[in-house]
Amino acid sequence: MRTWLFVAISLIAAALFGQAPEFAQQYTQRLGGAIDELDRIVSHFDEDSRRSGYDRAGALALMGRNQEQLIRDQATRMSEAIDRLARLRAQQSAMNQPGAFTRVAAFANGYDQDIASRTWRNFQFALPISVDSLLFMSAGFIASLLLLWLAAVGLGRLARREASAQ
User: Fold this and answer.
1) What count of other Cβ atoms lies within 10 Å of the Cβ of residue 148?
2) How do residues 71-113 score in pLDDT, each as one tens digit?
3) Rounded to an integer, what distance in angstroms lies between the CA atom of residue 159 and that of residue 15?
4) Tens digit of pLDDT for each residue in 21-47?
5) From which residue to which does the signal peptide run (predicted)?
6) Which residue among 9, 73, 114, 140 is the one 20 to 30 A from 18 at the CA level?
7) 19-51 and 100-110 helices cross at what angle (nearest 10)?
8) CA 51 to chain centre
């Protein structure tokens, strides 16, 4: 009975682990869209700055010294957008490396909270049959089966110790 329960739980874990490559792929699509949009915004800012005779740093410094709070706030927001664009590009580069485990690790190592939450909100579970999903499903099955077995062995030993102590 216990063996069948372990296998059933491990199959559920395998199905859940199999979702990781699909989620990473959908996140990567949203990441690319965010990069495209931020790149457009930063490019427009750079063009406006050049037309006014400034480079990016000079324009941000000028805006940061402005008497108007609105202009100073816009300088802060533009600096944040520029920094976020750099972070997202770095993550996109890491996620474009070959291998499903590499992509999922790159996601886990530095995901963008906003993009990840929007991806999760629209994510639909499926059973993708690809090499990547099969690898993750196998890893999930084996890891959960091993953890369940270790827990059962540990609980069995604890029960035997308590029984012998009484």
Assistant:
1) 17
2) 999 999 999 999 999 999 999 999 888 877 888 888 888 889 9
3) 32
4) 888 888 999 999 999 999 999 999 999
5) 1-20
6) 114
7) 60
8) 38
99: left (phi over 0), alpha (psi -120 to 50) or beta: left
Tokens of 31: 């990441």
Length of the chain: 166
Would you give the distance in Å from CA 25 to the centre of its chain? Answer: 10
Output phi, psi for 30, to 5 deg: -65, -35
Instruction: State the helix-helix crossing angle for 113-122 and 19-51, rounded to 10 degrees.
Output: 130
What average pLDDT does range 115-144 have in this prediction?
81
The residue to which tokens 């990567």 are assigned: 28
Look at the block and give the residue holding tokens 């874990």: 13
CA 120 vs. chain centroid, Å, equals 10
CB 69 within 8 A of CB 126: no
Model pTM score: 0.71
